[in-house]
């Protein structure tokens, strides 16, 4: 590197460069005025170099007044720092540059937020001035990490025999999934394109086209509300599809990729090299969620049968069970010495979540087994032994109990499992715990309409012998659908696809679609599958969520270069914005005046 702006970058100079005359360019990150000496930290994309000027230099007064974040070119000589002033925090910490000349090449107004520190600042300011926010060390490094992760993933995919193809951004609206972003067509008045929620149909068509292994770092667009782990508007995923594969083939590719990626970019330990497979039904029972955090050792158990016994006199639960409720519990190990306040606080917390609370007791043994706690008196010695057998509880362990319908029970026990583990400090933040959640039901009943609908991806292959599927019992049909989960965060859903048109018509008919509906709404897909389609399957792990985990961030905006705010607005570019009447006229659109 040698031009009029720099001979070296701001992370390049070392002791071997001492005595050299150099040119550096960058932003003034920080200044420290010691009266006779002025220290300036000069920053660029690569790092920081400390520059120094004494008051005898004619440039001293100007540099003393210069605004932070001004872009300057500095010319000077590299000198050793004295032993006591060496800065081990930066790679250039053994040297500094004595300033001989400088030139402002980019002036800076008064800053709306500090750049040299990573202190918390309001989201509105950070997003409006994102170009300044991105100069800050932590988020700057996150975005560089993102680039490196994507580059590494691409390399790994090529090594595994995948080819990268780009699929259309302007496509047709999908009747399934989230809300579409629509784009009016000027050449086809009254008609609209949709931005793709995912390249789902296109990647299947690529398999039908005879390509064997496809991938793409794909932009996806969904008009959804923001969450900590989901951006409103757009996100990126590693979209992949494979032909002539079964579920395990997809798992092997994805496990190898994720293990290599997480080993490359994190020092955290992987709890499993071979990811556990957990059925959807087991996940909902044992963890209360299909996104289980396996760093958490607490397990939920169903003990409804205990309350059918004559030697259990917990009448409130008994009555609820008769009306269709169930009882599930969480065992905490060796908590007999915890104060009463620990248990009461969790009970109160559960009520704050909208539940009726969490009953609790601790198993003790002096002469014989007994239960200590507000509801302990309702259980006989024999009933407690049965509970211990069902749950794996031991003497000195405590149990938190909840009674409700299945959905409410899953919700509160999942939340309680997380809450109790945090209160007991059971979760190791220095590990990644991956798992597969498998065997999703093909269909579910809509709670409001009571009609049968697809529970996941309508293009999935049902499990079992296709000739013997009992369509009259749709809720019993399982699908080759799977989720990859890490530390309680879902990275992706995937499936082995249904490549048989006749079977697809049958499955869609269960969900209330006629053959005409399917032909109209999925014309490209169903037509292609009629011309010799291979068995195929895939998945699409979220790039943003992968980087979020690797960067140890809790919010996806910390790993996204130009994110929107919670209201799906780009404060920096002032989008969405109104458009001119001329543009609307070209698109044959008339806006109604707001009342």
Compact description:
27% of the residues lie in helices and 24% in strands. The protein is an alpha+beta fold and 595 residues long. The strands form 6 sheets. Strands 6-9-10-24-23-22-19-12 form an 8-stranded mixed β-sheet, sandwiched between helices.
Describe the structure.
The chain is α+β, with helices and mostly antiparallel strands. Helix content is 27%, strand content 24%. An eight-stranded mixed sheet has the order 6-9-10-24-23-22-19-12, with helices on both faces. A five-stranded mixed beta barrel has the order 1-2-3-5-4. Helix 5 packs parallel to helix 14 (523-529) and helix 13 crosses helix 14. The model has no long low-confidence stretch (mean pLDDT 95).
Which features would summarize this protein structure in a list?
24 strands; 595 residues; alpha+beta
List the helices and strands and how they pair.
Blueprint: E1 21-33, E2 37-43, E3 48-54, H1 60-65, E4 71-80, E5 95-106, H2 123-128, H3 130-133, H4 137-159, E6 163-164, E7 182-184, E8 192-194, H5 200-208, E9 213-222, E10 233-243, H6 247-265, E11 269-270, E12 277-279, H7 280-286, E13 300-302, H8 315-322, E14 326-332, H9 340-352, E15 359-365, E16 369-372, H10 381-391, E17 398-404, H11 406-423, E18 431-432, E19 434-438, E20 443-445, E21 452-454, E22 481-486, E23 489-496, H12 501-510, H13 515-521, H14 523-529, E24 536-539, H15 543-550, H16 581-586
Parallel strand pairs: 3-5, 6-9, 11-18, 12-19
Antiparallel strand pairs: 1-2, 1-4, 2-3, 4-5, 7-8, 9-10, 10-24, 13-14, 14-17, 15-16, 15-17, 19-22, 20-21, 22-23, 23-24
Helix pairs in contact: 5-14, 13-14
């Amino acid at each position: 590197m040698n031009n009029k702006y720099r001979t070296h970058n701001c992370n390049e100079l070392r002791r071997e460069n001492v005595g050299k005359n150099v040119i550096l360019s960058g932003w003034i990150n920080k200044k420290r005025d010691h009266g006779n000496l002025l220290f300036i930290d000069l920053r660029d994309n690569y790092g920081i170099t400390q520059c120094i000027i004494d008051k005898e230099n004619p440039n001293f007064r100007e540099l003393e007044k210069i605004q932070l974040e001004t872009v300057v070119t500095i010319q000077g000589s590299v000198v050793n720092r004295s032993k006591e002033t060496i800065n081990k925090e930066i790679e250039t910490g053994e040297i500094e540059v004595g300033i001989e000349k400088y030139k402002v090449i980019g002036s800076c107004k008064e800053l709306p937020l500090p750049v040299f520190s990573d202190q918390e600042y309001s989201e509105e300011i950070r997003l409006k001035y994102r170009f300044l926010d991105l100069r800050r060390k932590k988020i700057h490094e996150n975005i560089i990490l993102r680039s490196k992760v994507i580059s590494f993933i691409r390399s790994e995919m090529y090594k595994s025999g995948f080819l990268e193809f780009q699929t259309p951004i302007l496509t047709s609206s999908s009747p399934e999934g989230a809300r579409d972003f629509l784009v009016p067509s000027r050449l086809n008045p009254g008609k609209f394109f949709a931005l793709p929620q995912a390249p789902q149909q296109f990647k299947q068509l690529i398999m039908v086209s005879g390509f064997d292994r496809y991938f793409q770092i794909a932009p996806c667009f969904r008009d959804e509300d923001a969450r900590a782990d989901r951006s409103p508007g757009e996100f990126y995923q590693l979209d992949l599809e494979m032909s002539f594969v079964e579920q395990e083939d997809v798992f092997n590719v994805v496990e190898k990729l994720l293990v290599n990626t997480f080993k490359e970019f994190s020092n955290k330990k992987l709890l499993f090299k071979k990811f556990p497979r957990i059925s959807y039904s087991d996940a909902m029972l044992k963890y209360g969620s299909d996104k289980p955090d396996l760093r958490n050792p607490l397990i939920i158990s169903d003990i409804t049968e205990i309350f059918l016994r004559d030697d259990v006199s917990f009448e409130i639960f008994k009555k609820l069970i008769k009306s269709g409720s169930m009882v599930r519990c969480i065992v905490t190990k060796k908590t007999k010495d915890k104060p009463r306040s620990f248990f009461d606080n969790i009970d109160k917390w559960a009520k704050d979540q909208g539940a009726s609370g969490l009953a609790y007791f601790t198993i003790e043994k002096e002469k014989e087994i007994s239960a200590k706690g507000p509801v302990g008196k309702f259980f006989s010695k024999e009933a407690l032994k049965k509970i211990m057998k069902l749950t794996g509880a031991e003497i000195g362990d405590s149990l938190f109990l909840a009674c409700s319908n299945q959905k409410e029970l899953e919700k509160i026990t999942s939340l309680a499992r997380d809450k109790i583990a945090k209160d007991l400090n059971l979760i190791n933040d220095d590990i990644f715990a991956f798992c597969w959640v498998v065997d999703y039901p093909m269909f579910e009943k809509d709670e409001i309409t009571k009609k049968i609908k697809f529970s996941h991806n309508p293009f999935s292959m049902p499990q079992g012998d296709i000739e013997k599927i009992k369509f009259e019992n749709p809720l019993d049909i399982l699908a080759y659908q799977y989720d990859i989960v890490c530390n309680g965060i879902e990275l992706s859903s995937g499936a082995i696809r249904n490549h048989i048109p006749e079977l697809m018509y049958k499955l869609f008919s269960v969900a209330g679609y006629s053959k005409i509906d399917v032909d109209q709404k999925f014309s490209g897909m169903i037509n292609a599958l009629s011309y010799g389609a291979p068995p195929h399957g895939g998945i699409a792990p979220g790039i943003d969520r992968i980087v979020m985990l690797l960067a140890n961030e809790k919010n996806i905006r910390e790993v996204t270069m130009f994110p929107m705010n919670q209201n799906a607005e780009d404060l920096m570019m002032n989008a969405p914005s109104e458009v001119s009447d001329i543009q609307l006229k070209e698109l044959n659109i008339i806006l109604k005046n707001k009342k």
